[in-house]
Amino acid sequence: MTSSEVLLPSTRRALLHRVATAQSEGRAPSLVAAVRRDGQIAWSGARSCVDGHEPDGETQFRIGSITKTFTAVLVVRLRDEGLLDLDDPVEKYLPGTDAGQVTVFQLLGHSGGLGAETPAPWWERTPGTTRPQLADVLGEKPLIHPSGHGHHYSNPGYTLLGSLVEALRGDSWADVLRREILEPLGMDRTTPHAQAPHAGGWAVHPWADVMLPEPAEDLGLMAPAGQLWSTTNDLLRFAAFLAQGDERVLCASSVAEMRVPAAPSEAGDWAGTYGLGLQALLRANRTLHGHSGSLPGFLATLLFSVEDDVAAVVLSNATSGPLTGTVAADLIQIVADAEPRMPEPWRPLPEVDGELLALTGPWYWGTQVHALKLLADGGLEFQPLRGIGRAARFRARPDGTWVGLNGYYAGETLRVVREDDGTIDHLDLGSFVFTREPYDRSAAIPGGVDADGWRGLAP
C-alpha cells in the first residue's frame, strides 16, 4: 500500500485544506507538513508562494528548539549507561560555572531557574563566536529564579547540557548526535548546517505583502538549543522513536520517562507541561507530546499521540505567521477523529497463573469497593468501581511484591499479606488495607472492627 492509499480521500482533502489555510492565512513563503500512522508516512502536503516550487519531504528547514529534544535524548542515554545521575549537580561535570548547583534533571525540564536567553546581543541573529565560553552564554547572574521551584524555559540551560555531553563523550555535540541518534534512526537529512535542497528563511512584513531574507547563523555553543536543520520525513522517524523507543538509541521505558512532566508550567505560559526535553499538551481530550521550534526565518513543530499512533510535522520558512503548533495538533485530530485506530483483538492469556487469578475481583478499602484485574502482560490493574478514584497499574517485582506504575500509587508497593496457613488475609497498598469484605472482621484491619458488627437503625 502506498502512502497515498493509507488514508481516505476525504481525510487527505481535510489535511490539505488545513495546510493550505495555514500557509495562506499565515502569509508564509512556504509550508510543508506530513503525518505518520501505523508505522509509515500516511500523508504529506505543501503550499508555496511560488507555483510549482512546493517543498517536499526531503526539503530541509531549520527546526530551532526541536533540537533540544535530540540533546535531551543524548543526556538520557548517558544516564542509562551509568555515566551520570539526573540528580547530579552540573558542577560535577562542568566545574567553574555560576550555575553549577543546578541538577541535570532541572536543566532537562527547564526548572533550574536559569534565564530564558543569553546576554545581549540577540543570540539567534548573531554568530556563535560572539559567545565563545559558557560564561558568555550564562552571563554574570545566570540564576533568576530558585532552582527546582517551577518551570522557566531556558535556552542557555540546553547549552550546558550540550557541553555536558561533550565533556562525558570526549567529542563534539554534533558528532555524538550523528553517531548516537541520526545514523541509527536513518535520519541522514538532519544536519547542523543546511544541505540542499533546503528552504531559505524569510521575514514577512506585518503590514505589507513583502519579504526580507533572514540570516542563518552558526550558533556555536548554543547549537544544542536550536541549531539543527531537518525534513518532515526525518522528523516523522524521530517522532516514531519518541513514541515507541528504539533499543539502538533509547529503550521504550526511557522515552516514556521523557514524556512525564518534570515541573509545573509558569502561570500565563503555554497551556501544557514539560518533561525531559519534551513538551506535552492536552488537545481535544488527547495528550500530545513533541516540541516546537523557531529561529529567524523558520517555524517548526513535531507532535505525536501515543494512544492514537499518529504523528504530525509542520515546517515553514517564516519568522512569524503560521501557527505550526496549532496546525500539527489539528492534523493529528483530523486523522484520529476521521479514521480512529482499530483496537487490537482481544486474546486470552497464553496460560493461567492460579495464584494471580485468586487475587482478582473485588477488594474493599473500608467500604469503598475496588477491582483487581489481571492484564495480558502479566501486570495488575487496580481501580475503583464507583466514581473517580485512585486507579493504578502494577508490575511484579522478583520478591513477590508489586510496584505502582502510574497515578497516586506510582512507585508504591502492593503486598499480599497471608495467614500462617498461606491463605490471603488482605492486600497492603502503601499501608492501606484492602479486604475481601467491607471491614472484614477476620482481617488485620488497623483500629479493629466493632465487636457487634454491622447493624440497622434499631427502635
Question: Can you summarize this structure?
Answer:
The chain is of the alpha+beta class. The chain is 24% helix and 22% strand.
So what's the overall shape? Answer: globular
Helix coverage percent: 10-25%
Q: DSSP strand (E) fraction?
A: 15-25%
The secondary-structure element order is HEEEHHHHHEEHEHHEEEEEHHEEEEEEEE
Mean pLDDT score: 94
Number-wise, the strands total 19
**Count of DSSP helices?**
11
Content-based structural category = alpha+beta
Strand order of the largest sheet: 12-13-14-15-16-17-18-19
Task: Summarize the structure in words.
This protein is α+β, with helices and mostly antiparallel strands and 459 residues long. Helices cover 24% and strands 22% of the residues. It is built from 11 helices and 19 strands. The chain has an 8-stranded antiparallel β-sheet. The chain is globular. The relative contact order is 0.13.
Brief descriptors of the model:
459 residues, alpha+beta, 8-stranded antiparallel sheet, 7-stranded antiparallel sheet, 22% strand, globular
Q: Which helices and strands, and how do they pair?
A:
Blueprint: H1 9-25, E1 30-37, E2 40-48, E3 61-62, H2 66-80, H3 104-108, H4 134-138, H5 155-169, H6 173-182, E4 202-204, E5 211-213, H7 223-226, E6 229-230, H8 232-244, H9 252-258, E7 273-274, E8 279-283, E9 286-295, E10 298-305, E11 310-316, H10 324-338, H11 354-359, E12 361-365, E13 368-374, E14 380-384, E15 392-396, E16 402-404, E17 413-418, E18 424-429, E19 432-434
Antiparallel strand pairs: 1-2, 1-11, 3-6, 4-5, 7-8, 8-9, 9-10, 10-11, 12-13, 13-14, 14-15, 15-16, 16-17, 17-18, 18-19
Helix pairs in contact: 1-10, 2-5, 2-6
